[in-house]
């Protein structure tokens, strides 16, 4: 029997295509010839590997078709917790935030220094100006009060009259 015929018979045996008589004869031959038994086992392992490889390829193809139908970005947004989004944004833009904060801080400090905010004499001038403004405000309020209320005089002037006499020590 040639190698090709032997392989075809081993394939038919493993697929269960032999008649019961042929199957019994093949098993008898297999038990008598260890080389044939070894070839059957090798061929069965080879077929199992081919079947496993085919199933793996089919699974990959099925998974690829499923992934093509999915909207990964919307699933990712729905699955990620909020804190994770904040963390992702922080990691992405932290250098920009640091630069903006340093520019803002520099602008505020330079403005305060240029206006003399840290200079004590300017502060004392503002205090003196505030005191003077408050005294002017008080005097204006008093003038308004005097203008609105008439000057106070007797509310009910009375008419008096009467009699009297005088005594003297001379008589």
- How much strand? under 5%
> Helicity level, as a percent range?
over 70%
Low-confidence stretches: none
Q: What order do the SSEs take from the amino end to the carboxyl end, as H and E? A: HHHHHH
- First-residue to last-residue Cα separation: 190 Å
Keywords:
mainly alpha, 0% strand, 171 residues
Topology:
Blueprint: H1 3-15, H2 20-32, H3 34-69, H4 72-79, H5 82-115, H6 120-148
Helix pairs in contact: 2-3
Describe, in plain words, how this protein is organized in 3D.
The protein is 78% helix and 0% strand. The protein has helices at residues 3-15, 20-32, 34-69, 72-79, 82-115, 120-148.
Short description:
The protein has 171 residues and is mainly α. 78% of the residues lie in helices and 0% in strands.
């Amino acid at each position: 029997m040639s190698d090709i015929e032997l392989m075809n018979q081993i394939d038919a045996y493993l697929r269960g295509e032999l008649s019961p008589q042929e199957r019994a004869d093949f098993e008898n031959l297999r038990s008598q010839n260890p080389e044939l038994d070894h070839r059957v086992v090798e061929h069965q392992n080879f077929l199992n590997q081919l079947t496993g490889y085919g199933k793996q390829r089919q699974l990959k193809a099925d998974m690829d078709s499923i992934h093509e139908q999915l909207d990964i970005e919307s699933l990712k947004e729905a699955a990620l917790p909020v804190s994770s989004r904040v963390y992702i944004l922080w990691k992405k833009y932290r250098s920009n935030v640091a630069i903006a904060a340093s520019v803002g801080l520099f602008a505020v400090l330079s403005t305060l220094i240029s206006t003399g905010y840290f200079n004590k004499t300017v502060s004392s001038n503002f205090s003196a100006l505030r005191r003077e403004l408050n005294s002017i405000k008080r005097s204006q309020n008093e003038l308004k009060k005097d203008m609105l209320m008439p000057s106070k005089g007797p509310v009910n002037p009375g008419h008096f009259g009467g009699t009297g006499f005088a005594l003297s020590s001379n008589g």
